[in-house]
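Re: your question from the hallway

Yes, I did run it. Sequences:
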Amino acid sequence: MSTSGHRRDPHLGGLVAAVVDGALDHVARERALGHVARCDDCRAEVEAQRRIKARLSGLGGPEVPAGLAARLLALPDGTGTGNPRVAELPQLRLAASFRPPVPVAPARRDGGRRDGARRDGARPVGARPAGRPAGRPARRRVAGVAGVAAGGLAAFAVSLATVLALGSPDRVQPIVPAVDAYTVEHSRTAVGVPGADVAAELAGLTASGGR
Amino acid sequence: MTLLDSTAARAVLVVGAGAVGAAVCSAGLGAIGGPPPAVPVPSPSQRVLSAAEQDAISYLRRAATAERTETYSGEKWLSSRSSAGAVTVLEVRHDPARGTWVEPRTPAHVSAHTVPGADTVDLDGEALAALRHHYTLAVRGADRGAGRAATVVEARALDGGRVAGRFWLDDETGLLLRRELYDTGGDIVRATAFVRLDVGRAAAAVPAESRVDRDDAPVRALDGAALAAFRRAGWQLPDLLPGGMERYRALERTVGGHPVVQVAYSDGIFTVSLFAERGRLDARSLHGFRVDRVAGTTVYSRDGLHRTLVWAGGEAVYTLLLDAPEPLGPRLVAALPHTPGDGVLARLGRGIARVGSWANPFD
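Structure:
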């Protein structure tokens, strides 16, 4: 017989999820479980949510490509200080299903040695060698200057190519001198010169002498 | 410094380096592509004309005025001494109201033209000044031309006294009947003479139409200030050219939708007109021209009674018409821009100017 009509003990409602997750304190849990034992509806609801949780828990995580962890660890930390947190990435377990194929030991925090050098001679990726404290930053500065210079040259080359394209002769207006018209104008202008002969100037006109 | 700041700083450095490079390049181009050095022409000396010269000039002034007052027709013989050589016989009809009609009888391939009359009624003051700078004038006496009584005026070079020109002027009308121009060796380089002249009979015979495509856009006379404005805009329009050629007139007109500047030069007897226009020379459309190399550049030449030279210099195309001794042509080309604007530097200059015009809100 269903007990869904039990009026002195209302249904669990939103507490079902808390019962399934075990999130209730002791007293509440006892009361809830007592109700579940008497109420078919709430018992069915609790069982249904437990099945769903079990099914979700049984699903596997996404497959991680082989060697991904090693490649991530090989990346420089970009600070030049040998940040050990990079080496600790596997311990942080950024993803619950992350399974690095290559075990990586955590970096040691030994005596405040910020360079991260290890007693066995190995050092974490990105750490500066103990005997060469300033070499790597100097190289980085040189690389930075070279990068800026290369970028400047590239920008200049692009500007040069653009300006050359804009200055192409094809963009300049083609001119066909109106030679006959100019001959006429020359003759008219020359009238003001002492001893000018207009007819002699016009004799330079030809039938094919230009526009 | 944060990553963002570092990236921004690098971007600024990169763009700055490019801009600095472009600026340096522009400055270099400005220095390289600047105007050619001025032609070293000595400043002409001013001198006071004698009474005899004033008398001679009055004959020449009357001849210029006669072209605006006399109607005539006739036959004229013209010759030019040059490497190509040219002798032409023209039939001429002149009406001050309708212009001058010329029809060459020889050579046969030349067609007839009617051109409007000149807009001046007197000798050009600047051309007269050039004449004073280089020549002395004198009336040499009476002679005859085309069967008419004439007075001969002679021009001699101030430097050496050689004869530079002789002019036969009609006593009745003042018209120029005959003209002979000489080079520095004493040889005649230009000669024109009426072999027949009928005064007052050609008014109805001058055809009104002209074959020549003459732009009807108004012509603007350019004074010194206007010429200076053109020069500031990059036009190479010198006041003086080799051979004692002095600017006596400058005009601007529109041909084919773009401005053309004409600068007329003279030493007082010989004349040269320079036509400058911005653009790229389309030499394929030049017919009847031969290709020469002058001052290391390609010049298109046409010889006849006077010589025509066309070439590209910088960002402009120049057309030079010479009624002057032939050797003067190469000297004038060499004195004007004659490096065509198709090199890398020219392209750079054009491109930078184009980019600069984008930044100019008034361009």
